[in-house]
Write a structure and sequence with these properties.
single chain; mainly alpha; 6 helices; 74% helix
């Protein structure tokens, strides 16, 4: 069984990581590169007289091949790691609860993973463009990790708990990090246009949702095939 889990995770991670990298090249990295222009001062949002200088038109990917290769490698490694955790959880649920494993159920697992790892933390700490001022790193990392754990445990209680009381506790656990609040600066300021930042957040989360969905789908598919 462990061999099947490992191979399913590796194949699902390779596919999802490749898809995620392609989507990032098409939709996310151009926004990231434009954000870097504002960070370096090559492009300004407002001139000294208050007139805007920003012009829509993201730069091309250019010839930074080392950086692009690292993007692909990072995505494949990240999604393979996520897939290992996901298939382990799916295997445990099957062994303990007798849940059926399939591509369709894997899709649901993948979406839940996206909610726990990407969406819930982004509610308090959304993806940031280069040069965006932020609170100290250590408190943000603690809140980010705590939110992932709380959301994952909360979703598990809602999905698998046998009593409504535990399911309610799961919902409260999901809300708890947001009731506490993520670390933030006291003021809002940055070098990039807010419209660019908003587009970067939505594109980043949208592409991550697709990546997690693909990973979950294929994790369930390969796991179910290994049982035949």
């Amino acid at each position: 069984m462990s061999k099947n889990l490992l191979s399913s995770a590796v194949f699902a991670g390779l596919i999802a990581g490749s898809v995620a990298a392609l989507l990032q090249f098409l939709f996310v990295i151009p926004l990231l590169l434009e954000g870097e222009l504002y960070e370096t001062g090559a492009r300004l949002h407002f001139l000294s007289d208050g007139m805007t200088q920003s012009e829509k038109g993201t730069p091309g990917l250019g010839g930074e091949w080392d950086r692009h290769i690292m993007t692909v490698v990072f995505n494949v490694i990240s999604y393979t790691g996520y897939a290992l955790v996901l298939v382990a959880a799916m295997g445990f649920a099957k062994a303990q609860r007798g849940l059926e494993l399939s591509a369709n159920s894997g899709l649901i697992w993948g979406l839940c993973g996206f909610i726990a790892v990407q969406l819930a933390p982004a509610v308090g700490l959304p993806p940031e463009l280069p040069g965006t001022p932020a609170a100290e790193l250590a408190p943000r990392q603690v809140w980010w990790l705590s939110t992932i754990i709380a959301t994952a445990v909360g979703l598990s209680l809602i999905a698998f708990a046998r009593t409504g009381l535990w399911q309610i506790a799961g919902g409260i656990l999901i809300l708890l990090p947001h009731l506490i609040g993520a670390p933030h600066l006291d003021t809002y300021f940055g070098v990039a246009p807010p419209e660019l930042s908003a587009e970067f957040v939505t594109q980043s989360l949208g592409m991550a949702a697709i990546g997690w969905s693909v990973m979950g789908y294929f994790a369930g598919y390969f796991l179910s095939r290994s049982e035949d």
